[in-house]
Amino acid sequence: MRLSILDQSPISSNQTPHDALNESKNLAKAGEKLGYTRYWISEHHDLPGLACSAPEVMLSYIGAHTQHIRIGAGAILLPFYRPFKVAETFHMLATLFPNRIDLGLGRAPGGSAEATNALSDNYLQSVYKFPTAVKELLHFLDDDFPAEAEYSKISASPLPEHPPVPWLLGTSKKSALLAAENGMPYTFGHFMSDNEGAPIVKEYREAFIPRKEGQTPQVIVTVSAICAESTEKAEEMALSSLIWSLQKDKGEGLQGVPSIQEAKQYQLTEKEKESLNSTRQNMIIGNPHEVKQKLNELKTLYGSDEIMINTITHSPEDRIQSYQLIAKEVLGLPNSDSKKHS
């Protein structure tokens, strides 16, 4: 099983945005040493507690501090941008960091309605045109517009020796079939989906049409997981993330991810307890053996090539140790001191 990292660059209650972005760099470095296949960072806009609004900027920083781990966006929210500019940006990254760049694409707004309006005058129209924009972007990435096409005479320079690998991210049959139609690898967001994901992934595989010779369907399943040496410790660590999600829903999460102690002191209503338990069901929380078992169950369920893990804790050390324990259990790597990765 291959393992990868999805980083939302969370800001804890005792951190500044600078701290959070620096910890994202530390996480990428740790992931590389621990044997994770890739590190992706997400794009969010005006969401308190999440530091990264420009993955393309962070990827330059991450690439400069790592050597071989694949790095990418999870995802660039394409409706906000023209495909040509996205292709130029990621061609630049692929030129700087050869054969290491992934370009995940999404269609979600990634923020509030106000932020969406500030970013785009016609977001909904762009969402409607998303399939066309994806096709256009692929032509720019491959530099293979037909001679009669509108943009056949231009290239998204610089053209790297190894173009970025485009992935489509989603949680629906619609996104899966769009990925299949365009011969793109697909990432299913299990951690943020209420849909039954396995049938969706199955339809993707069955509908897949290779864009290039030799292509086959590729699937990453993204999960939320928190691992500690004991189940009790993992549950404690997860409480910070769970309470923060409730606070955000109520507009109270402005201070970032609460500490374990702060989370324990949060007064829950009965309705919030139900919501918290529902959210917990969609997470993997436990000791290394328990987490490995649940990851294997998901791998079997989806028939996935790779599992991408999103972990949010108050403590950066707890977060890296969670990834470290999972790597040791699943990949069989040495359990070195997590401080070495900071």
UniProtKB/TrEMBL annotation:
<feature type="region of interest" description="Disordered">
    <location>
        <begin position="1"/>
        <end position="22"/>
    </location>
</feature>
<feature type="compositionally biased region" description="Polar residues">
    <location>
        <begin position="1"/>
        <end position="17"/>
    </location>
</feature>
<feature type="domain" description="Luciferase-like">
    <location>
        <begin position="1"/>
        <end position="301"/>
    </location>
</feature>
<dbReference type="GO" id="GO:0016705">
    <property type="term" value="F:oxidoreductase activity, acting on paired donors, with incorporation or reduction of molecular oxygen"/>
</dbReference>
<dbReference type="GO" id="GO:0005829">
    <property type="term" value="C:cytosol"/>
</dbReference>
<dbReference type="Pfam" id="PF00296">
    <property type="entry name" value="Bac_luciferase"/>
</dbReference>
<dbReference type="InterPro" id="IPR050766">
    <property type="entry name" value="Bact_Lucif_Oxidored"/>
</dbReference>
<dbReference type="InterPro" id="IPR011251">
    <property type="entry name" value="Luciferase-like_dom"/>
</dbReference>
<comment type="similarity">
    <text>To bacterial alkanal monooxygenase alpha and beta chains.</text>
</comment>
<protein>
    <submittedName>
        <fullName>Luciferase</fullName>
    </submittedName>
</protein>
<dbReference type="InterPro" id="IPR019949">
    <property type="entry name" value="CmoO-like"/>
</dbReference>
<dbReference type="InterPro" id="IPR036661">
    <property type="entry name" value="Luciferase-like_sf"/>
</dbReference>
